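This section describes the prediction task in plain terms. A model, or a person checking by hand, is given the sequence of a single protein chain and must write out its three-dimensional structure as a string of tokens. No templates, partner chains or ligands are provided. The sample shown here is typical of the held-out split.
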Amino acid sequence: MFKKILLVAALLIPMLASAQTLKIGLVDSSDIIAKMPDTATAQKQIEEVSKKYQDEYKKLEDEMKRLYDEIANMKEDELPAIRDRKTREFSDHQNKVQQFEQTAMQDTQAMYQKLMQPIVQKVRTAIEAVGKEGGYSLIQDKNPQNIIYFDAPVVDITADVKAKLGITL
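The expected answer:
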């Protein structure tokens, strides 16, 4: 009886051990995203919008400098009402520049999110497909800030994901 138990245990232990083996993969999603043609297109659109905002900001800055120079070049005996009006005009323009800067930054960030979201989703879908095809239990992003230690049997699947997406670089 004892021999039968040992025999069953000897047969079951390796099966249980192999059933619990995890296959872990690492993927460098930022490298993949950087090399996707869609990313270059999105970056170009963002740069074009940023350039337009920078040009407009320059115009606003030039106007603010002009207003400042007017105040700085006023004569000592300038009427108080004129000085107050110029100071208020400068202060209002300064607020306008700050508001423009804030709006431009928010618009640019929103555009970035809108353009990059489908790209990130495409990479995520490819990672999931490679994970299923390769029988991976876990796939971790290969961000050096998040990884403390890894060793075999971890597999870097970045090249497989790039191949799935048709990226040859």
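For orientation: The beta strands are 24-27, 138-141, 155-156.
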